[in-house]
Write a structure and sequence with these properties.
Radius of gyration: 17 Å
Number of strands: 0
Mean pLDDT: 79
Largest sheet: none
Order of helices and strands: HHHHHH
Shape: globular
Distance between the termini: 30 Å
Structural class: mainly alpha
């Protein structure tokens, strides 16, 4: 792994200016919760020899990682994306190990950068404090669902932009 930080703190601060600390923390929760499943899907695709699926998952992960300033993860995912798009799975195993290690570093650095606010409990508590009225208990879930949709939309947009830039 590289000696540099896994997360570009300037990118996180820029997101905080745009979305607020709580908004970034909520998105970080989604990123941290979804990434293990995406990594598992990538390992499954590589083991099955499905370069197309591996490329698709790598593209999505690259976009969401870079969206958080997780440069190292984005770079490794981009390498997996390039190789799998070319039909090569020769380096997929070692790259997926590196990507998993980078994710663990990224998760730790996001926790530090966001002051431990990227934990699911902190995000739900934050949402509960901001909600009011009789629907208070349901509001955090609906807010999280809304944020999940935003993250998915952002991932799709980034993937489209990246595919256009390769042309």
């Amino acid at each position: 792994m590289r000696g540099a930080a896994a997360v570009d703190r300037g990118a996180v601060r820029q997101l905080q200016l745009q979305l607020g600390v709580d908004g970034v923390a909520e998105l970080a929760v989604q990123f941290v919760e979804r990434t293990p499943a995406r990594l598992a899907a990538m390992r499954t695709a590589a083991a099955a020899g499905d370069a197309s699926k591996l490329c698709e998952e790598a593209t999505a992960l690259k976009g969401s990682a870079r969206g958080f300033g997780a440069v190292e993860m984005g770079d490794i995912a981009a390498q997996i994306e390039r190789e799998s798009a070319a039909g090569s799975l020769a380096h997929a195993g070692p790259l997926l190990v590196d990507l998993t290690k980078s994710f663990n570093r990224t998760r730790s650095e996001l926790d530090q950068e966001l002051g431990r606010r990227s934990g699911a409990v902190a995000a739900v508590r934050s949402l509960a404090r901001r909600s009011s009225g009789p629907r208070q208990a349901a509001t955090p879930s609906s807010r999280i669902a809304e944020l999940e949709q935003r993250v998915e939309s952002l991932e799709r947009s980034v993937a489209r932009l990246l595919s256009r830039s390769r042309r």
